[in-house]
Specification:
mainly alpha, three-stranded antiparallel sheet, two-stranded parallel ribbon, about 35% helix
């Protein structure tokens, strides 16, 4: 089952990249012979093909939906970014594995742990743009940022025709 799940995720990633490549190639060819605007779109042309970006393993941002008290006092609050937040990971050494305990799922039924943590994937394109936005960590944790920027700036894509399908990558496919 594990190999089948990995193969399925790999197939979705390849399919997504192929769709993006086809749209980019089509847009370049169509825009080459027509006058273009600063966003690369030909006069009167709108982005025609909707795109769904599907992240790979560990590529969706997870946030806390429940307060978690930690022994060190560095608590995890509702709305805190947990995956991936470098500050949470680094501070985990003084938190007595508080961050790690939140990342774990029940081994039997993949439900939320009984320790007070509840994590969910962020449900927007922002969830797959960068895992840990910031001056230093943002460029290092960029997932789809460059693709999103290129589609928006060069081809006129916006939230009406560019979407993401973030998911809790800790769950097996049959539970999603």
């Amino acid at each position: 089952k594990m190999k089948e799940g990995k193969a399925r995720r790999g197939a979705w990633l390849i399919l997504t990249l192929m769709v993006v490549a086809m749209v980019l190639e089509k847009s370049w060819v169509e825009g080459a012979s027509s006058p273009t605007h600063s966003n690369g779109k030909a006069e009167g042309e709108a982005a025609k093909h909707p795109i769904m970006l599907i992240p790979g393993f560990a590529s969706s941002r997870l946030v806390s939906w429940k307060f978690k008290k930690c022994d060190s006092g560095l608590n995890i609050h509702t709305g805190d970014r947990v995956w991936l937040d470098v500050a949470h990971v680094v501070n985990d050494f003084i938190r007595d594995n508080c961050w790690l305990d939140c990342m774990k799922l029940n081994a039997v039924d993949q439900s939320d742990p009984e320790n007070g943590c509840k994590l969910r994937a962020v449900s927007s394109i922002e969830a797959i743009s960068e895992l840990d936005p910031g001056q230093i960590t943002g460029p290092l944790s960029s997932i789809f940022r460059d693709i999103i920027d290129a589609l928006a700036e060069n081809f006129g894509y916006d939230p009406s025709n560019l979407a993401a399908a973030p998911y809790d990558w800790r769950l097996p496919p049959e539970v999603l």
